[in-house]
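New here. Invent one.

***
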Amino acid sequence: MYTCDDIATLDDVAPGFVTADGTAPTPVAAIQPAFNLIDYVVPALGGLSCSWRVGPAVTEPLHDPVDSDWAYVSVKVVAGGADSWAPFTVGDDALSFGDGPSDTAMTIGGIDAATGCGYDTGCFISAPVGDAWVEIVLSTNWIQRDGWYFSGLTPDAILAQMQPLAASVFTALTDAQPGQLVWPTVDLVEHESDCTRAVGSEGIATALGVDSLEYEVRSPPNGLTCFENYVAQRAGVFQCDVDADVPADLIGAGVWGTSVTVGYDLAGLVDTMVSTPDTQALPTIALKGAVEGEHAVQMCSDVTPFCVVIFSLGQSAYQVASTSDTVAIAEAIIAHTR
């Protein structure tokens, strides 16, 4: 069974982090802290997820300090995903957004891959390799205007630096023997995307200060065009967006924009978050009603009231995102379930 060391050495990873002045820091293995549950799901699907960092570890992914000087590169391999492969498309500069199939191709080790750079996507190389969907993403504080990690490099130059890593990954996967691309998987049971059943409504309405609420269910459709949607669909993850009649005095209280993401059978992802560099630095919190072995992390913006709480409950994982009281919403979900 392949490990991250089998698909890429540090010598393969390091060129992707070379700065405009030629500085080549030594990367270390670390998982980039993320505020989206989907970013942690690949291993549960029987896939391989690898990640490396240079610069200081990110401890608050919703913070945007002006002196950020970090970069991460991740490699995610999902067996059986090649037939669904359809990467993001981005525009002609590093500040564009991805939203559909790409026609920007690069041939690496004889494999045609899509590439691009954008705020949402980072700089990516994406390809079907064998029967797997392979996604390689380089991320940093792209929004920072002055002194960002890759300042002075064009998107094409950054993508060129990522090619040694991609070539190593593609070659390793292509040359793998039967059994080397089989990884542990979580036994995922198919569930109906029923928000009221999954998270309740009365407790969350109370936490939000409204009389009642409804949910709009967001499940990734088939015919997917991005890696994250494909992973969510494979894992059965769905999002419940809160819809409520909001009194005028509560319009700014965070009811609109509140969502709960449900990942049945994915509690182990939260265990990983609290035990793996660098995600173990995420702020942990204690939730009322949680029992021994259940964990929760909270991430908050440093410029708005927006917060995200990701927590385990029984065998499942949940993500609450809101500018209201995310802790109270999470505790309402626990009370409903227990």
In short: The first strand starts at residue 28 and ends at 29.
